[in-house]
Hints:
This protein is α/β, with parallel strands linked by helices.
Amino acid sequence: MDYNKRFSAAPAADIGAGTQHVHETFGVPVSFVDTSRGTFSVVNAETCFKIDRVDGLVLTASMLTGSGRVAKSFRFDLAQIRKPVLVAHHHNDDCW
């Protein structure tokens, strides 16, 4: 998935629909564990499109800086996320 798609409404809607389905079908909390570029999609859904059904986030090897066309994942207003979030990153990780 390219960067423009990750920052669009379509993946946010997919995340919302998937989590709503799991909540309605199984009645359990849903948390996402995303790595590298995948962290863009869930943070985008949470901060820009206000997907409420996600109960928690684990962001691993997030791309914290960017070059050229790559946006920073933490350009988002993370203060908008009102649920548990764990960010894990190793200083030798190849993700920026």
